[in-house]
Write a structure and sequence with these properties.
Elements: H1 2-20, H2 28-43, E1 51-53, E2 58-60, H3 62-90, H4 96-115, H5 119-137, H6 144-175, H7 180-186, H8 191-208, H9 217-223, H10 226-249, H11 256-278, H12 284-303, H13 308-339, H14 350-353, H15 355-369, H16 375-389, H17 393-418, H18 433-451, H19 454-462
Antiparallel strand pairs: 1-2
Helix pairs in contact: 1-2, 1-4, 2-3, 3-4, 3-10, 3-13, 3-18, 4-5, 4-10, 5-6, 5-10, 6-8, 6-9, 8-10, 9-12, 10-12, 10-13, 11-12, 11-17, 12-13, 12-16, 12-17, 13-15, 13-16, 13-18, 13-19, 15-17, 15-18, 16-17, 16-18
């Protein structure tokens, strides 16, 4: 529990800092939080032994530890990109510490969820990861759209949690246990357990924004602060994908003949709905919301396999997706913070005034679209390879068709920045050091992950832990 204890310590230190740091120097809390979380991220790369605590409720191994490190890197980059906004908007209103506490509390819940060895620990982690985010979504209380987004999120999250909990209770009725290790040995393919899986899957599908559980996504992303939208899009989704993959490849593996058909249909619906609706969007946050829905559909191509290859491709793609999406959200946040503009047409002629931001956005969109040689191409290629290895050739063909659709609407943004002209373009501005560091980290991640194959080999070796 080293990472959990360290993160809890950071939360407590921030509370102490909030009490003792004078009001005139509250901006120091941002530097303190970034420093502490940076140390926490670095410490996470030191290995841990495979352990099990509390009678098997909490467990960790090398792959779970890697999951947490991936989330840590994503949150650190997100905080670097958000530091200027926190200092200029939140610290002024004396809300900076609360923002960090809520985000770190949510991340702590994701740790528990990923390391869960039974459904009780899983559900505690699920709630702890969700409730703080509801407060973050409704953070800008002066804006009606933010309050509306908070209400939509908490009601949808409450319904999803209730559905998942009902599924867990049915699973307990059918197996007599809530421990993953015990359920694996006794679960059978009967109507009760199939219904339990469907309900449980529906609850997690909400967090991943899978169709038809995606309706909240665009409205919440648009109403929430960009930092929170980014957090929901990459960190929250990544954690939910990890735990769903672990449970499907272990606890629900005997039901694979059932859930592979469900995943097949949901993957197709998610890819087509996300891509087709993204074409219609003008607001960049809504645009990236539907883009993230479509990317979730691609992730299911790895989940449907139930193999070691599928595990490795999902972990690798989520890592690539985190860097790519954070780069896109980072550019949107930088522009919004300086100008307040968030529509695609506002980006007309951006390359002429802000070439560096335009290049970062182009690289991010090319990675999301899967254009070689950036990391997104290899992420999608490995997903298609995993699905094809199990004979899902039609699914792969339709996924490739969706890549073509996604390339069209990503290029609409690239065209606006590089080709279109504007009488009133976004003026030149220079980002502060934290934002530049955050964007630089995403660019390095997108390029290195596309060129450094040993990392994928390392993930593949670790992935054997759930497929023995």
């Amino acid at each position: 529990m080293r990472q959990e204890i360290f993160l809890l310590t950071i939360i407590l230190l921030l509370i102490v800092g909030e009490i003792f740091i004078p009001k005139s120097k509250k901006s120091y809390i941002v530097h303190l939080a970034l420093f502490l979380f940076g140390v926490h991220t670095l410490v996470g790369f030191f290995g841990v032994e495979e352990t099990s605590l509390f009678g098997g409720m909490f467990r960790t191994n090398d792959l779970i530890h890697l999951f947490k490190n991936v989330l840590n890197v994503g949150v650190l980059i997100l905080l670097l990109q958000s530091a200027d906004w926190i200092q200029e908007k939140l610290v002024k209103d004396n809300k900076g510490t609360e923002f960090f506490m809520l985000m770190f509390s949510s991340l702590l819940g994701m740790y528990f969820m990923i390391s869960a060895g039974d459904f009780l620990m899983f559900y505690i982690g699920l709630e702890l990861s969700t409730l703080p985010v509801a407060a973050l979504v409704a953070w800008e209380t002066s804006k009606r759209i933010s309050s509306e987004a908070g209400v939509k999120f908490i009601l949808s999250a409450g319904l999803a949690s209730g559905v998942s909990l009902f599924g867990i209770s049915l699973l307990y009725a059918g197996t007599g246990s809530i421990y993953f290790a015990d359920i694996i040995g006794v679960i059978t393919s009967n109507n009760l357990t199939i219904l339990a899986f469907i309900l449980f899957f529906s609850g997690l599908a909400f967090k991943i924004s899978l169709v038809p559980f995606h309706f909240w996504t665009a409205d919440v992303y648009e109403g929430a602060p960009i930092s929170v939208s980014s957090y929901l899009s990459v960190i929250s989704k990544g954690a939910a994908v990890f735990i769903l993959m672990v449970l499907m490849f272990t606890v629900f593996k005997p039901l694979m003949h059932v859930w592979e058909n469900i995943i097949y249909v949901v993957a197709l619906a998610t890819m087509f709905v996300g891509n087709l609706f993204a074409i219609r969007q003008q607001n960049m946050k809504r645009f990236l919301a539907f883009s993230s829905i479509a990317q979730a559909g691609f992730i299911l191509l790895g989940l449907i396999t139930g193999t070691q290859l599928g595990t490795a491709t999902v972990v690798y793609f989520v890592l690539v997706y985190i860097f790519s999406n954070l780069a896109a959200f980072g550019v949107v946040q930088a522009i919004s913070l300086q100008t307040g503009k968030e529509n695609r047409d506002d980006y007309n002629g951006l390359y002429r005034t802000n070439p560096n931001l335009s290049l970062v956005m182009m690289l991010a969109l090319f990675s999301l679209a899967g254009i070689p040689p950036v990391a997104g191409f290899f992420g999608k290629f490995f997903l298609f390879t995993a699905a094809a290895s199990k004979g899902y050739y039609l699914l792969v063909f339709l996924a490739v068709a969706n890549v073509t659709i996604s390339l069209y609407y990503y290029l609409l943004v690239v065209r606006a920045m590089f080709i279109r002209k504007s009488d009133n373009p976004i003026p030149f501005f220079k980002n502060k050091i934290y934002m530049r560091l955050g964007l630089l980290a995403t660019v390095i991640g997108i390029l290195v992950l596309g060129l450094y194959s040993p990392l994928y080999d390392y993930i593949f070796e670790l992935s054997n832990v759930f497929n023995k």
